[in-house]
Amino acid sequence: MRRTALVVGLVVVAAAALAVVLWPRSPWSKEELTTLKSLSLASLPPLGPDPSNRVADDPRAAALGQRLFFDKRLSVDGTVACATCHDPAQQFQDGTPLGHGVGTTNRRTMPLAGVAYSPWLFWDGRKDSLWSQALGPLESPVEHGGTRTQYARLIAEQYRAEYKALFGPLADLSDAGRFPAAAGPVADPAARAAWEQMAPEDQELVNQIFANMGKAIAAYERGIMPGESRFDAYVDAALQGDNAAMHELFSLDETAGLRLFIGKGQCLNCHNGPLLTNNDFHNTGVPAAPGLPEDTGRATGLPQAQADPFNCLGAYSDAEPADCGELRFAKVDEHTQLRQFKPPSLRNVAERAPYMHAGQFASLREVLEHYNRAPASPAGHSELQPLNLSDQELSQLEAFLHTLSAPTVAPAPVEGTAQATCLGCHPQRTAATSTGAASVGQP
Question: Which terminus in the chain has less CB density within 10 A, N or C?
Answer without folding.
Answer: N
